[in-house]
Specification:
It is a single chain. By secondary structure, the chain is of the alpha+beta class. The chain has a single domain, classed as Cytochrome P450 (Cytochrome p450), CATH 1.10.630. The chain is 57% helix and 10% strand. It is built from 20 helices and eleven strands. Strand 1 and strand 2 form a beta hairpin. It is globular, with a radius of gyration of 25 Å. 39% of the residues are buried. The structure holds protoporphyrin IX containing FE. The site of protoporphyrin IX containing FE (HEM) has 24 residues, from helix 6, helix 8, helix 13 and helix 20. GO terms for molecular function: heme binding; iron ion binding; oxidoreductase activity, acting on paired donors, with incorporation or reduction of molecular oxygen, reduced flavin or flavoprotein as one donor, and incorporation of one atom of oxygen. It comes from Polyplosphaeria fusca.
């Protein structure tokens, strides 16, 4: 009996192996036909490696970590190999690109063919289910729901930022040291503005201890989540207890606001509740599940907080190192907004185009999602990079990973000319660059998953920059004690976003 059971099991396993083999064979044949029909040729450029499974490539990256110049280190690959190359990691083939045509295919023209891959599992403990990690129909639903909120916000008056900017200015003005690191102030500022946007009235609701525990848990959980993202399919190897605790703290913080909104709805009626908690209640109206609402809020929070803080930090980092640019910005701001005017309007910001050029140029040099990845959900192609000239389409069998680097693309001389690595806001002035460059400028990506918070982020950053520049006319780089390397060679912290490892140290007076 035991013998025959073993035999049955062996037969089932053998059948399964044969089935998988035949399915793969059929898939390979179908892929080949698809490739031939579309004129695909193999990508000939490959990142060289010497050790089995290309472990030497991994080791080199690992060795570059302590210097905190990983992105600068990776520049050599693109400089040497060009915009597209193939790489092997643990025996799997993957592709790297800075070619606008290929990025456009992944994000737009062949959008349906690509998915997030392991991003969802990597971020799940911190964020749960939501827009930033979903694909297909669930993503479409989340996008539609959240888009409504961002349309509403576009018409908000900018005085929603006023209290937080005043707090930021007061904090900077009363900083204990002469040399002030602005970066941590910006992180606090964008946490406050984004939680306000999402959770509604947050001011004075919770004690300072709870607020501080939330802020530090959010920072820590984001850091560990970024490491888990980099581990891709091996994310399960890294889930330390402190991380699990931090995820618990931020979730119960968000839970608190969701239940507060629901209680207000129950006790004070729809009109009052909606005026205080529009974001939460509109989501709840559709989702009818407090946990799912909380998760969506966390997704938007992670998408919006660090990105905008880093944009502001890099902006001032660059401004104090380029005093001529700072001087011109001060002048142009002063010509539109008078010195004691506190409530800056959208119309005024629109009248300071130089501010847009400064922000564009900062986002070009330091795009906040420097490197990103998608996985082919079905067999598809990249339009460019194949064959001897690197111009033919390349077959991407189902499951292939493609990473693209906006960071390195934005520094390519082929796109931005010989001074591509320099901070030069004037390049955006009196030129058609913004339109011409198309998919060559992607701080907010493009296509159906274009950043939903683009307008909010740019408005928030513009508003704060105007107020800071007005408040501190003596703003400058300290003459000593602060590193001043060429752009891109400074030390960087690379989490999900890229920030300056030395902060943004300035003299305010
Ligand atoms: C300078 C600031 C910002 C930058 C550079 C930025 C950049 C990006 C990028 C590149 C993506 C695409 C990610 C991907 O598809 O893999 C994205 C998505 C997203 N961003 Fe932003 N973002 C910024 C600020 C914000 C803010 C302030 C919010 C909200 C308050 C926000 C909300 C979102 C959301 C919800 C998505 C997901 C969209 C989707 O998948 O359909 N972002 N952002």
């Amino acid at each position: 009996m035991a013998f025959s059971r073993g035999l049955v099991l062996a037969a089932i396993v053998s059948c399964y192996i044969v089935y998988v083999y035949l399915r793969r064979k059929r898939q390979r044949k179908a892929d080949k036909i698809f490739g031939a029909q579309n004129g695909c040729l193999p990508m000939e450029v490959m990142l060289p490696y010497k050790w089995p499974f290309a472990l030497d490539v991994l080791k080199k990256q690992y060795d570059a970590l302590p210097s905190q110049r990983l992105l600068a280190f990776q520049s050599q690959y693109f400089d040497r190999l060009g915009p597209n190359f193939k790489l092997m990691l643990f025996g799997n083939e993957g592709y790297m690109t800075t070619d606008p045509k290929n990025i456009e295919a992944v994000l737009s023209t062949r959008f349906e063919d690509w998915v997030m891959g392991s991003r969802s599992a990597g971020l799940y403990p911190m964020l749960g289910e939501g827009i930033f990690t979903q694909d297909g129909r669930p993503w479409k639903h989340s996008r539609e729901l959240l888009r409504r909120q961002f349309v509403r916000i576009q018409y908000q008056k900018l005085d929603v930022f006023d209290n937080h900017v005043n707090e930021l200015l007061n904090g900077l003005a009363s900083a204990p040291d002469t040399i002030v690191d602005m970066q941590p102030y910006f992180f606090r500022f964008t946490l406050a503005t984004t939680t306000d946007l999402l959770f509604g009235e947050t001011e004075g609701v919770l004690t300072n201890d709870v607020e501080d525990a939330f802020a530090s848990s959010f920072d820590y959980a984001s850091l560990i989540s970024a490491i888990r993202l980099r581990l891709a399919d091996l994310h399960f190897l890294y889930k330390p207890k402190k991380f699990r605790n931090a995820c618990g703290v931020i979730k119960s913080y968000a839970d608190h606001f969701v239940s507060r909104a629901l209680k207000t709805l129950e006790q004070e009626g729809e009109e009052i509740a909606l005026s205080r908690y529009p974001f939460i209640l509109d989501l709840y109206n559709d989702m009818k599940d407090a946990k799912l609402v909380r998760d969506q809020l966390m997704h938007v929070l992670i998408a919006g907080r660090d990105t905008t803080a880093c944009l502001m930090s890099w902006t001032f980092y660059l401004l104090v190192r380029h005093p001529t640019v700072l001087k011109r910005l001060q002048k142009e701001i002063a010509s539109v907004v008078s010195g004691n005017e506190r409530n800056v309007t959208r119309a005024q910001i629109a009248q300071i185009p130089y501010l847009r050029y400064v922000l564009n140029e900062t986002l070009r040099l330091y795009p906040q999602l420097p490197v990103n990845v998608r996985i082919a959900a079905k067999t598809t192609l990249l339009p460019s990079g194949g064959g001897p000239h690197g111009t033919a389409p390349v077959l991407m069998p189902k499951g292939t990973g493609v990473a693209w680097s906006a960071y390195h693309m934005h520094r390519m001389t082929r796109l931005y000319g010989p001074n591509a690595r320099e901070f030069d806001p004037e390049r955006w002035e009196n030129t058609d660059l913004e339109r011409q460059i198309g998919w060559g400028f992607l701080p907010f990506h493009g296509g159906p998953r274009l950043c939903l918070g683009k307008d909010f982020a740019l408005t928030e950053a513009s508003y704060a920059v105007v107020r800071i520049v007005q408040a501190f006319p003596g703003l400058r780089l300290p003459p000593t004690g602060v590193e001043n390397k060429p752009t891109g060679e400074e030390r960087q912290n690379l989490t999900i976003v890229v920030s300056s490892a030395d902060g943004c140290k300035v003299l305010l007076r």
